[in-house]
Structures are given as structure tokens and as C-alpha cells.
Amino acid sequence: MFKSALAFLFISVGCGLLLVFTADLTAPRIEQNRLAARLDIARTLLAPLPAEVNLALPISGTCDAVLLLNMVSPGYAGDIQLLARWQPAAGVAMRVVAHSETPGIGDFIDHTRGPWLAGWDDTLEGDIPTIDGIGRATITTNAIKYAFSQALHRAEVHCER
């Protein structure tokens, strides 16, 4: 029995070390892929992508032209990561970068799977209450509404400086 426990311990430690090594080995590549996906989404929001936009910053761009904001909103199954474009007098447009909402129910926020979020491009503060919810996805819809209001607020505060 002691030999079995010792063998199990060695196998467990070996597997754990292998997982840690694999995670360390793949982490830079995963981050590169996430940044590339974010860049593709930024290009859909801003074509062409201005030179002053830095996706690594929480807010980048200029107040007189365009701001790009990295947003996080609490969804049903976890945080929803979004990229928002704000332009003076035009409002906010958003795209989801990553989410863990329920497959099939919360997928409507993904612009590659449906037009719902793109339909709210150039949203102003007064338009937020009119954003229609999707049945059975109230928390997800409210997370998007919250993200729109936060993007407008953050852009306003940033440009007042």
C-alpha cells in the first residue's frame, strides 16, 4: 500500500510539473493571440487604426478624434471583456473581446455570431435605456448596458482633464 501511495505521489507531482511547464511555455503565445484578436476587433471599430491608439492602455487616442477604451463588465458567468470606441458627438460602439456567458444563450453579444451588439453602434447616453434585452439573458444585457454607460462616463471624465 505504501508503494502505491508513493507511486501515486510521484505521478501526481510529475503531472503537476508538466502542467506548470506547459502553461509557462504557452503563456506568451496565448497573450500574443489575445492581442492579435483585440487588434482585429479594434480595426473593425476604427478603420484605419490611428497611430495614437495603444491597445495596452485602458484608454488611448485623442478626445478631439477618437478614444479606444478597454472595458470589463460583470456578466452572468463571469467578466465580459469589451473594446469600446468613443467619438465626440457620435457616441460609443462596442465589441466583445472575450466572455464566458452561457453558450447558445449569451452568444448574442458576440459580433461574429450575430448583429445585436453592432446594432447599437454610436450609442449616446439617452439611448442606453432603449437597448432591448434578449429573452433569458437579462444579466448579460444589463452587463452590456452597464458597459455602454461606463464607456461614456470614462470618456467624458478622460476628456475633461
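The record above closes out task 2.4. Task 2.5 opens with a second protein, given below.
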Amino acid sequence: MGLLEEPAWKCWLDRALIFNAFVVITGAIWFTVAVVALAYHIEQPMLLFRLLWSPLFVPTISVLILSSLLSGLWVWWQQRGH
């Protein structure tokens, strides 16, 4: 393995985290649309968002925050060692 090559597991993990971030961003956009629709008395987008909040958005937001913290700690630990 060369110096610039990353292990396969890290590539897959990065892809999964990028997909996770995409889901969080999509959820934020959907929430914005739902709030605007609710202002016009259209409730279906907000009902769908509320339905997906606990099973989809809470875990993806948690994974995004946890991975950011772990990444920051990992970089800090690597810099501390040098």
C-alpha cells in the first residue's frame, strides 16, 4: 500500500458519512419546505416530516455529530503525537 492510498474500509466509511450528511441536508430542506407549506395551511409535508423524525432524522443527525466529534478528536490526537 502506498502512502496516499487509504484502506478500503475508510473509503466505505467516508462514503457512508457523505450519504449521511446528504440525508441530514435533505431533511433540513424538507423541514424548511414543510414550515413554508404550513404557513399556507398545507399540512402534509409537516406530517411526513414528523413521521420520519424519530426513525430517520434523529439517528442520522446523531451519527453526523458523533462522527464530527470523533474526527476532531482523531486529528487532535494525531497532532498531539508529533
